[in-house]
């Protein structure tokens, strides 16, 4: 009878050591290469459009024990949005949630393709049809990062460029 009373607490202790419990802090939980795959985007950036004109500034910081990339984007006309980016180790994908001052929400998921981070997600257009968003961040040898945002409403047969910009460190 006594050994069965100990089984529950021992099992809980073993599970607590094997997997993080909500509210429990771990030392360096996000150090794997997968967790660090988007670090090339961390920094303070001037954002230039395809014509080379300065259009925005963007600050990407590592937060929450270096597990979350937090983006704070402001363009020259005052538009502001933020994203939270995290590697979901359980599913093996990168996830981004973007929100802005107008109430927009964009959820993207994906991962590395070669050296580029490619995230995709579906939104609804004004007419109620689904639109697939694809955003690709590609690091360049000079330290800059190209961000290409494209959409398609026909399942990928044709893509429309929404934004093509280059991030240059300040």
Polypeptide structure, described:
The protein has a single domain, classed as Calycin beta-barrel core domain (Lipocalin, Beta Barrel). About 8% of the residues have low confidence. It is mainly beta. Helices cover 10% and strands 52% of the residues. A hairpin with a 4-residue loop joins β2 and β3. The termini are far apart. The protein is globular, with a radius of gyration of 20 Å.
Indicate the topology:
Blueprint (H helix, E strand, L loop, with lengths): L1 H17 L24 E7 L4 E10 L4 E8 L4 E9 L4 E8 L4 E9 L2 E9 L5 E10 L5 E8 L7 E10 L1
State the order of secondary-structure elements, H for helix, E for strand: HEEEEEEEEEE
The low-confidence parts are 7-19
Annotated CATH architecture:
Beta Barrel
How many angstroms separate the termini? 68 Å
Estimate percent helicity.
Answer: 10-25%
The assigned structural class equals mainly beta
Mind summarizing the main beta sheet? 10 strands, antiparallel, barrel
Percent strand: over 45%
What's the number of structural domains?
A: 1
Could you give me the name of the CATH homologous superfamily?
Calycin beta-barrel core domain
Q: Main sheet: which strands, in order across?
A: 1-2-3-4-5-6-7-8-9-10
Figure out the total of helices.
1
Mean pLDDT reading: 90
Estimate the global geometry from the Cα principal axes. globular
The level 1 CATH classification is Mainly Beta
DSSP strand tally: 10
CATH topology grouping: Lipocalin
How large is the radius of gyration?
Answer: 20 Å
